[in-house]
Amino acid sequence: MAGPRVEVDGGLLEGGGQILRVSTALSCLLGLPLRVQKIRAGRSTPGLRPQHLSGLEMIRDLCAGQLEGADIGSTEITFTPGKIKGGSQTADTKTAGSVCLLLQVSLPCVLFAASPSELRLRGGTNAEMAPQIDYTAMVFKPIAEKFGFKFNCDIKMRGYYPKGGGEVIVQVSPVKQLNPINITERGSVTRISGRAFVAGALPFKVAKEMAAAAVRCLRKEFRDLYVNIQPVQEPRDHAFGNGSGIIVVAETSTGCLLAGSALGKRGVNADKVGIDAAEMLLGNLRHGGAVDEYLQDQLIIFMALANGVSRIKTGPVTLHTQTAIHFAEQLAKAKFTVKKSEEEGDAAKDAYIIECQGIGMANPNL
């Protein structure tokens, strides 16, 4: 049944965990046996880390596949996928590894499962080097659902670096096919909202300071706009360990959502964290793209699978996005084009149109 193994070079482009996520998800969806070599070859700690391992094991379990070479520090794995079945799955990074990245690898797969899925994802919910769960809920979810699926994301427990201990339950019903999307009209910003949180031993005034600093920074640019950033003390029974951070989301007249976020770190003053998040949002608004820099790469796999032509307007195309496109073309044979936006008013801005002829993946079970 299975053809020859597809060979993936884990050292290309982004050269990290993202290659594993995109290639194993597509391998699982398309029934392609896979070998990934040189995994995270250029990183300071090469090879698989605990969060990559738990993602791989979850994909293996989702489709009753076979996985070889999957150990901490391993730089080569082979994966032979089976049939995607759905049902209940648990993935635990046992560290502060990101639950959002576990969702990134599993969501495309369970959309094409035989039955509804419940994914219990454990690790960090608000962790460095990954989207925060609030970004997933406030930005990724509403935009991704434009592909014609729905998922439910229940944050049971928040977890932070270094302990982790967070838990999110995601429920997904399978679809027959994905619709293409067109997100090219940014529109004007109509509201800005967000949340600044503290958890554990950190005083509530830290959340208030982050929120106030972000509001001040955004008010300079948007004098007449209502900016509503809630300071939040995470309840003790819903947060494991200590953490702080902020997310700010701009909503536009055409329904686009763009964000900026930052996490508190020891020795960094709360004002600076708030300002960093606000500056990130302002940067994402300046380039004129209709999706922000963190949404770009997360949409690529869905565009590749959709039934028809998708178009998104972005700011500068990130290395993560180039990586996702490369492997979506190599493995799924989707066709992408990336062009500088020619639209009126974009000449001075760094805006691009990413277009994809999707493969029209159909769920064999429905």
Q: What level of helicity do the residues show?
A: 25-40%
Residue windows where pLDDT falls under 50 for at least 5 positions? none
Shape: globular
Structural class: alpha/beta
Structure description:
The structure is a single chain. By secondary structure, this protein is of the alpha/beta class. The protein is 31% helix and 28% strand. It contains 8 helices and 17 strands. The chain has helices at 17-30, 50-62, 99-110, 133-144, 204-221, 270-286, 293-305, 319-332; strands at residues 6-9, 34-37, 66-68, 77-80, 87-92, 117-123, 151-159, 166-172, 182-183, 189-199, 227-233, 239-240, 243-252, 257-263, 309-314, 335-340, 352-357. It has a 5-stranded mixed β-sheet with strand order 5-6-8-7-12, with helices on one face. Strands 1-2-4-3 form a 4-stranded mixed β-sheet, covered by helices on one side. Helix 1 (17-30) links the parallel strand 1 (6-9) and strand 2 (34-37). Helix 2 (50-62) runs parallel beside helix 3 (99-110) and helix 5 packs parallel to helix 6 (270-286). The radius of gyration is 20 Å and the shape is globular. The model has no long low-confidence stretch (mean pLDDT 95).
